[in-house]
Amino acid sequence: MVKPVFAETAENPWPDLDPKVIQLHKSQVLENFDSHIFRLPQPVVTNTAEISSIAQIEVDGKRLRIYPPFPINQKEEAAGAFENAWIPAGQTVIEQHLKLPDTAIKGGVANPKLGSGDLHCHGLRIDSEHGADFRGVASTLIELIAQFTWQWWLRSSESPFCGPHRLGVHLDKNFMPMELLRYRGAGKVESPWYGVMETQTPLGFEKTLSEQIWLRVIAEVQQNLPADTGLLAFVDAIAAYVAGEDEKCVLNLCLCVEILGNKHRILSGSRDVDFIKIIKQSPLFENDVQRQLASRLFIDRGHIAHGRTPPYLASKDTPLSYVELVRNFVNCYLNSIKPGDWRKATTTVLGKTPKK
Question: Where are the strands (E) in the chain, listed by range?
Answer without folding.
Answer: 33-46, 55-59, 62-66, 86-89, 96-99, 119-129, 165-169, 193-197
